[in-house]
User: Which sequence fits this backbone?
């Protein structure tokens, strides 16, 4: 696909993402092809892709634009999810849909394809753009505070949702296993942590964020 989504694209101005959970792996397999076909039929100028959760029966659809087109973003992602799950009523459920804008980026300086996309979805206690920004700054501080980044981490790109209630962190890793190993470094919080320094612990104690958050590993399927 020439219009594939890449989270590190510096020209992205708007992003829409949605996760769909399935009752079984069989239901996911039946829905995957329609969702892929929908991603290939997006309007000109739209970057889109489909990713499969490597640990659960779920798919992630992402669309991005190099111009700010809020209405188009919402419509595209909602229509794509509805199209994919229409034949599977009762077996597929949209978990969430977010529209967001770029809010920060970090790179380890390493090269590589980044086979695994790790999406951290961090909700806030209540909508607040200041907390969105301060939490991203806190994570960037922790990333830059390590002498060496975790093995396998290539980059991290942050997006603040337009409803001011969530932050999305799209991180590129060499593999899902590299991410699993890195999470074992910090034995605290809901999912562990890729760092064990006080700076990393502070990312989980940051005022205004919810303790419950989502960390999922994906592989591109389209």
Assistant:
């Amino acid at each position: 696909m020439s219009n594939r989504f890449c989270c590190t694209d510096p020209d992205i101005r708007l992003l829409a993402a949605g996760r769909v959970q399935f009752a079984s792996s069989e239901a996911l397999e039946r829905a995957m092809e329609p969702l892929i076909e929908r991603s290939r039929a997006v309007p000109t100028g739209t970057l889109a892709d489909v990713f499969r959760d490597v640990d659960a029966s779920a798919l992630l659809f992402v669309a991005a634009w190099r111009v700010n087109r809020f209405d188009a973003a919402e419509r595209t992602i909602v229509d794509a999810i509805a199209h994919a799950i229409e034949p599977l009523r009762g077996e597929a459920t949209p978990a969430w849909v977010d529209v967001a804008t770029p809010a920060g980026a970090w790179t380890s300086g390493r090269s590589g394809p980044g086979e695994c996309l790790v999406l951290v979805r961090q909700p806030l206690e209540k909508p607040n753009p200041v907390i969105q920004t301060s939490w991203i700054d806190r994570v960037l501080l922790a990333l830059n505070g390590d002498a060496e980044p975790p093995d396998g981490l290539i980059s991290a790109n942050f997006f603040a949702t337009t409803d001011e209630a969530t932050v999305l962190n799209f991180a590129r890793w060499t593999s899902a296993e590299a991410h699993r190993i890195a999470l074992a470094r910090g034995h605290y919080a809901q999912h562990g942590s890729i760092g064990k320094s006080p700076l990393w612990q502070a990312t989980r104690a940051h005022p205004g964020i919810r303790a419950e958050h989502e960390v999922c590993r994906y592989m591109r399927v389209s």
